[in-house]
Write a structure and sequence with these properties.
By secondary structure, this protein is of the alpha/beta class. It has seven helices and eleven strands. The protein has one domain: BirA Bifunctional Protein, domain 2 (2-Layer Sandwich). It starts with a strand and ends in a 10-residue tail after the last strand.
Length: about 260
């Protein structure tokens, strides 16, 4: 990594709006020439559904989400809908340099794979790239976890970590924001119940697809997930894979491995 000095942020539970604004602010600040590259770990309170930057909000039943206390927020990145519930979410903000989107995906996924191995879970990277232009024409593609992109993380062929990426340009050059969900339980399956009436006929199919194509840490390990230990392992995965030195600015709560 070209910048050995990084910031680690454990921001705990925040609303969807705060989480997405936080990620974007880190990326824009780095592109403007301020701050350092960062790894942030966080969760969502209340649960929230995030839509990809260009995804139609009409695909969700906003009234039912509101009735159940589920927020709806738009991500600054692409991809498809995710119900953020039983998960640990990561974000990485770093200079892009001359690296391609897939190169960055591969490097970040490598650090996550190492962190998950420290937690005791052996995973693999998806090697193929789906035809997303074709898949997105189907209502079955509404959930992010319905398919895996190249270098996304799988357990026995089932998606465990879903990620999205965007680049910001500023005086300091191009900056990558990549964030993603590490599934810790099966609450993400409930996304199918929050789809709008216009795609209601796809709910059962989407639920079946999510059950078939996703895995979560509770299912894999057969027991409850320690968020503190998992967060520490993910942090160490980046430190040991990339040789980075995490420091923290004043006022930010940090978590040690």
């Amino acid at each position: 990594m070209p910048f050995p000095l990084w910031t680690f942020i454990d921001s705990g539970e925040q609303t969807g709006a705060v989480n997405m604004a936080f990620d974007e602010s880190l990326a824009r600040a780095l592109a403007a020439g301020g701050g350092t590259p960062s790894l942030r770990l966080f969760r969502w309170l209340p649960w929230a559904i995030s839509l990809g930057h260009n995804q139609a909000a009409e695909e969700l039943d906003a009234a039912r989400c509101a009735a159940d206390g589920v927020d709806i927020v738009r991500r600054p990145t692409g991809g498809r809908a995710i119900l953020h519930a039983e998960e640990l979410t990561y974000s990485v903000v770093m200079p892009a340099g001359r690296k391609s989107i897939l190169q960055v995906y591969n490097e970040i996924s490598g650090a996550l794979v190492h962190g998950l191995a420290l937690y005791g879970v052996e995973v693999a990277l998806q090697k193929s790239q789906p035809d997303f232009a074709k898949e997105y024409r189907s209502s079955s593609s509404i959930p992010c976890f319905a398919s895996s992109a190249r270098y996304e993380i799988e357990w026995h062929g089932r998606k465990l970590v879903g990620s999205a990426q965007r680049r910001f340009t500023g005086p300091a050059g191009d900056v990558v924001l990549q964030h993603g969900s590490i599934l810790c339980g099966d609450a993400h399956l409930r996304l199918a119940g929050y789809l709008a009436a216009s795609v209601a006929e796809a709910r059962d199919r989407i639920l079946a697809t999510l059950r078939e194509r996703t895995a979560d840490l509770r299912m894999i390990t057969g027991g409850p997930v320690s968020m503190d230990r998992l967060g520490g392992c993910i942090r160490r995965g980046f430190e040991e894979s990339w040789g980075v030195d995490f420091t923290a600015p004043a006022g930010i709560h940090t978590q040690t491995a």
